[in-house]
Design a protein that fits this description.
Belongs to the TolB family. This protein is mainly beta. The chain has 4 helices and 31 strands. Strands 2, 3, 4, 5, 6 and 7 form a 6-stranded mixed sheet that branches. Helix 2 crosses helix 4. The protein starts with a helix and ends in a 5-residue tail after the last strand.
């Protein structure tokens, strides 16, 4: 199983594709005993039946975070939809600290009015309440927004339920040929949409900070090539198609540059590409090593990358305008595919020991490393935009699946699907 560093090596020889397909559903494989009990009451309905079960989506979102333990519907003592219908003494008997109620109404089945209230059961007070008018097509997104509000109100952290996932799939046609697809979905794996299809491999999707652009690598023109595509319009542009390898794009924090891996001078090195002008600046200089998988620090002044300049793949740091590279990882004989937490304090990576590859995190100040996963073929870690979870690819029964783990390793999820494999995950930033 290749990690992204090993894929750079493979690209120099040519790419060997993986099977993949996607329709993702979240399965909680581990949780936190400290999860907060919360009652999410099924929303009332007046008029036309809503196209989505809002309360179920909210409940599933909160459960998937590992921070909440929604009560089962069979455990609910009543189903209030208005504040005056709530008897807080009854809900305290269930030891539910939070109570979410709401209702949905529509006069025409095309536009819906949605309201909700979130209560602190023990203080008998409303924490937040809102009303919305949305079209039928916006109901699922609204449910994610409400889950974000509940999450942030009760934890003080931003929720990520309204964000998106990007990943690469491969579809087998009836004639035995293959079609690759770059897809995006909601954070819960629902509502998958295809951004690009190709008969040639697609690799390394990377979200721009604005959340509306993706950079990725394709082979559709018989060589590796980096494209940038606008999701809102579908417009895309080739930004790197030099001789040799064009790979591993990573956006700068301001969204104006890409750090890329190019071998146009014979050896894979890190370059910075200014998108507005096409100007290239070479960052690394080591003719004896493969330098790849750049990722920007949040300050925009430093870049981390994977290199085998010390004999085996390890992670190094260098100024974005070049200079002497400094080694960052020392524990384990293999560290690659870094991603940085939004606050710049933690790094996640593929950590290899004795041929097994796990997802780990490293405190960038102390250097302390914690291995988070027990599976042995993990790759492509990507931080959630609130820094709480890490999305990654792994293998289950010989096929690729996506999974997620909390930064403390306590909460584990597996995003199952009906096809054969899914690879190359990337978690979007918050919407702007």
């Amino acid at each position: 199983m290749f990690t992204r560093w090993l894929k750079t090596v493979a690209l120099l020889m040519f790419f060997v594709p993986w099977p993949a397909h996607a329709l993702l559903t979240i399965e909680i494989t581990g949780g936190s005993e400290a999860a907060l009990p919360i009652a999410v009451v099924p929303f009332g309905n007046e008029g036309f039946a809503p196209p989505e079960d809002i309360s179920s989506i909210i409940s599933n979102d909160l459960k998937s975070s590992g921070r909440f333990a929604p009560l089962k519907q069979s455990e609910l003592i009543s189903q209030p939809h208005e504040g005056q219908q709530v008897n807080f003494a009854d809900w305290r008997l269930l030891r539910s600290e939070g109570l979410l109620i709401g209702k949905v109404s529509s006069q025409d089945g095309e536009n819906y009015q949605v309201q909700f209230q979130l209560y602190d059961v023990y203080k008998s007070q409303q924490l937040v309440g809102k009303r919305y008018n949305v079209p039928a097509s916006g109901m699922r997104n609204l449910a994610h927004q409400i889950a974000d509000i509940v999450y942030e109100t009760l934890t003080g952290e931003k929720g990520v339920f309204s964000t998106r996932l990007a990943f690469v799939t491969e579809i087998k046609n009836a004639d035995g040929s293959k079609r690759y697809a770059l897809q995006i979905s909601d954070a819960d794996g629902a509502n998958p949409r295809t951004v690009l299809q190709s008969r040639q491999p697609i690799m390394s999707p990377s979200w721009a900070p604005d959340g509306d652009r993706l950079a990725y690598v394709t082979f559709e023109n018989a060589k590796s090539e980096i494209f940038v595509q606008e999701l809102s319009t579908g417009k895309r542009q080739s930004v790197a198609s030099f001789r040799g390898l064009n790979s591993a794009p990573a956006w700068s924090p301001d969204g104006k540059k890409l750090a890329v891996t190019l071998s146009k001078n014979g050896n894979p090195e890190i370059y910075v590409l200014e998108l507005s002008t096409g100007k290239l600046s070479r960052v690394t200089h080591n003719s004896q090593a493969i330098d790849t998988e750049a990722v920007w620090m949040p300050n925009g002044r430093e870049i981390l990358f994977t290199s085998d300049r010390g004999g085996r793949p390890q992670i190094y740091k260098v100024n974005a305008d070049g200079g002497r590279a400094e080694r960052v990882t020392f524990e384990g004989n293999y560290n690659a595919s870094a991603d940085i937490s939004p606050d710049g304090r933690m790094m996640t990576m593929v950590h290899g020991v004795n041929g097994k590859f796990h997802i780990a995190v490293q405190d960038l100040e102390t250097g302390a490393v914690q291995v988070l996963t027990e599976t042995r073929a993990d790759e492509s870690p990507s931080f959630a935009p609130n820094g709480r979870m890490i999305l990654y690819a792994t293998e289950q029964k010989g096929r690729g699946v996506l999974a997620a783990v909390s930064v403390d390793g306590r909460i584990k999820q597996r995003l199952g699907e009906s096809g054969s494999a899914v690879r190359e995950p990337a978690w979007s930033p918050f919407k702007k």
